[in-house]
Amino acid sequence: MKTRISTLLVAAGSLFAQTPSRAERGRQIVDEAIKALGGRAFLEVKDRTETGRVYSFYREQLRGLSVARIYTRYLTPPAPPARAEGMLVRERQSFGKKEEEYAVLFDEFKGWQITFRGARPLPAETLERYQDSTRRNFFYIVRERLGEGGLTMEYQGAEVIENTPVSVVEINDAANNSVLVHFHQSTKLPVRQIFHRRDAQRVRHEEMTVFSKYRDVGGGVMWPYSITRFRDGEKIFEIFSESVVINQDLDDQLFTLPASMKILPPQK
Fold first, then answer.
1. According to the model, what pLDDT value does residue 66 have?
2. Rounded distance, CA 262 to CA 118, Å?
3. Distance separating alpha carbons of residues 62 and 54, to the nearest angstrom
4. Is 166 in contact with 189 (CB distance < 8 Å)?
5. Which residues, 6+ apart, have CB-to-CB distance to 5 below 8 Å?
6. Per-residue confidence (pLDDT) for residue 15, from 0 to 100
7. Sign (positive/negative) of CA torsion 257, 262, 266, 268?
8. pLDDT for residue 171
9. DSSP-assigned letters across all residues of the chain
């Protein structure tokens, strides 16, 4: 009897030792997602251009729609485990049939609204919301922040959302900013992410983004052609891309204010 009990204890101990920790399982799921997104090719994407239609909503009602071109350039992250001082991406969002009609430009530290009148600095809260949302975006995290000190990934279990089995991983950084990412259990691709943030009045909001309609945009790199954002359960933004291309050596002028452009005062 003693021998049998000892054998069972050894077997149980061996099984326990083979069970991955939540951190190990979380990192495994993220690694599987990176591989599904294109692996090394995805991690080395230099720039991306998305062309399509964007829709904005207020209280679930359509408030505006426009043709949009979103240009993104990724910058080189600092050597691990350092954290970047500013953003590691530059982005230009152009709206309207003619790109000069209206645009929003972001660099590592600042943001501007650009019209025929000139460039106006974005309100501080708008810029902060963009930067926080970008830092907690899963695609940005795996492209720019994987080597950052204090970044953790913990498996939170399995769920079913809209009849889709998903694995849930919480990604947390050294400043305790977290995001829950849901990964399709079959394709391994991210299908949803959720995080919470407080506005200038310290009101807490839930920010959710849904990713769908993935396509190969070149060299095995996958990207969602449909991205929908919700705030506190209400749809606020949606983009349907008609084309997405990568690594086009985008011109520096796209991400730089012309020296001759008039700088307007901030909005009061």
1. 87
2. 5
3. 11
4. no
5. none
6. 46
7. negative
8. 98
9. -HHHHHHHHHHHHHHHHHSPPHHHHHHHHHHHHHHHHTTHHHHT--EEEEEEEEEEEETTEEEEEEEEEEEEEEPPPPSTT---SS-SEEEEEEESSSTTSEEEEE-SS-EEEEETTEEEEPPHHHHHHHHHHHHT-HHHIIIIITT-TT-EEEEEEEEEETTEEEEEEEEE-TT--EEEEEEETTT--EEEEEEEEE-TT--EEEEEEEEEEEEE-STT-EEEEEEEEEETTEEEEEEEEEEEEE-----GGGGS--TTSPBPPPP-
- The mean-pLDDT minimum among 38-47, 88-97, 178-187 falls in 88-97
Retrieve residue 96's tokens: 């309207």
pLDDT, the chain, mean: 91
Q: Residue type for 202, please?
A: R
What is the chain's length? 268
Q: 214, 233, 229: which is closest to 56 by C-alpha?
A: 229
CB 54 within 8 A of CB 239: yes
The answer to whether 179 and 124 are in contact (CB under 8 A) is: no
At residue 267, the pLDDT reads 81
Domain regions of the chain by residue span: 23-255
Q: Which CATH class is domain 23-255?
A: mainly beta
- 60 — pLDDT class (breaks 50, 70, 90): low
Give the phi and the psi of residue 265 in degrees, each rounded to 5.
-70, 155
Give the global pTM.
0.89
> 223-245, pLDDT tens digit by residue?
999 999 999 999 999 999 999 99
The number of angstroms, rounded, from the C-alpha of 103 to the middle of its chain's C-alpha atoms is: 21
